[in-house]
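Re: folding output
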Amino acid sequence: MSTSSSTRETARDRSTASLRRRRTPKWVRMALLYAGLWAAFIWCVFPFYWMIATSLRAKDEIFARPPSIVPHAITLQNYVDLLIGAQFWRFALNSLFLTLSVTVISVLLSVTAGYAMARHRFKGSVMLPLFMLYGQMFPPVLLLIPFYIQLKFLGWLDSLYGLIPVYLSYMLPLCVWLMRGFFAQVPHSLEDAARLDGCTRWQAFWRVILPMARPGIVAVATWVMIHTWNEFLYASTFILSERNRTLPLGLSGLIGQYTTDWGMLMAGGVVTAAPILLIFFFLQKHLVAGVGGGAVKG
């Protein structure tokens, strides 16, 4: 028995040693990991680089074959044509008006509604958030005809004001759901302590609860701004005149049936994406902050 057991142990040791010898070295695994990360990074970043590079090329170089990765001669003529020759600023102002209006209304309504759902219990308080999210199950294209009929009945077709309730209808439910989750994580004891110190319900909400929910407010506002700034489907359906076009709709006018001004189109894409990148740059610390961290600091 002892001989057989020692034989099994020896065989097991040999198999373990062979597995160790066959194990991939650490530097090989790290090299493969970094190679995969760099490949994913290039895959994600290259379209943006190509957009910027195309916007800086001369028109004859854009159609050169084979295409070059780096522009031979950098020119800003595409940006000049976009910002001066086209109606870019009218489209930008229309998008800015829509984005600010929808964002402010969404934040105000989602903060108040989310706080009420998180702090108060009423009939249907459990089913109401779920019912609000049911609207997110339908694709936006399915709501085109009902929205079109309603806007036509109200006389809001081809109007920027008509797009505001359309955008709110499918953005607000998710915003309320998110804010409800943020307010639900804030301990009730902090609000009760503020009430014991003499604060009214509004003062406790404004001075204690709202600062702790700042990451949620920033996240909701950022999400609404991005979707409103880039929205194309509803704007292309309900906006008929050129003077009321938004930026995505205005840039789509550069795509013709027989020809496309790719240089100006790419320049418009760069200028349109710049505000979103700036928003992420300045608000990134708020986006990654948690409600728990705010409670500790407060």
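--- second protein (sequence, then structure) ---
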Amino acid sequence: MRRLPVFLLLDTSGSMFGEPIEQVKNGVQMLVSALRQDPYALETAFLSVITFDSNATEKVPLTELTAFQVPALTAQGATSLGDALTLVADVASKQLAKTTSTTKGDWKPMVFIMTDGAPTDDWKKGLGRFQQEKWGVVVGCAVNKGDATVLQQIAGEAVVRLDTSDHSAMAKFFKWVSASVSSNSKAVETAGKEVEGLDQLPPPPPEIKVVV
């Protein structure tokens, strides 16, 4: 079976403490619930959660939707985005099945990065490692005062902004992520072709502004 890996890189630094981190938890739960109702996603999508604060941690390795459990998330510390980019690249290198002359490997991963601040580590070193792997769609989401210019260097044109981290905004974002994963699952299952850019994903709702 060819998997469609989906990596969520979530900022769990101190500035996410309180309401924001609770809404992220709710959002991940909502995302999983929505994808479990999609037969295409159930067939192909595998979900991983990587958090970054003073360190980057693989909270959930790539897991099929039926077995996925939302991890405990707490907010504290700094914003080691570079470490998260290195970690997801290392995970992809070790865990993903590569295409060979006789077998098709996993589909190119989708990566969603959410941050509400600026990196506190050497994120360019992490970006260098990240760029050594093959990715499908990479989407950056700047929440509140998140640094969109850093995200643009990672995700290119696929950067969006949420002006608030309240329930409504976060719910809209995770709903859009689930719709994006669903559309890619359907594309790989029905057409054998993966989505390659933001323009091929469902349009984000008005609360989610595309950064240009």
